[in-house]
Amino acid sequence: MASNDDLRDVVRQIYHARVQGDLDGLMSFLDDGCMFRVAGNQHLSPLTDPVVGAEALRATMQYLIDNWDMRGIDFVSIHIDGDVALVHRAGRMRFGATEYDAEIMDKMTFENGKLKECVEFIDTLQAAALLDMIKLPARG
């Protein structure tokens, strides 16, 4: 098990690679059997479907890098408990031409120094609307 400071540094490096669009750098932190998912129910599939394994993760991470600009997102806090990091981030995010306020919480579990599982908690209603999975009523 890495020290809290070491794991906090790895977490920061993972997000830095993601924001910079460094797919190979990002993938270097992931276990070959890593699982990534957005928390939510089956009605928001494929948004909430688990993504497992290096090939599927590479494709998903490339899609996220290409389509979801997170340069305006900053760390609020990083809490470490053993091999688990809880990461709270907030700021301005962009999907295509749409820029909006976002708040994200990730639960990252590490094993043997590599990311084994990441569960991301986002505003799934907002994401589903941006992905044209649902239509939100106009504000009145």
TrEMBL record:
Coiled coil segments of this chain: none
SnoaL-like domain sequence ranges: 11-117
Pfam families to which the protein is assigned, alphabetical: SnoaL_2
Record-given protein name: Nuclear transport factor 2 family protein
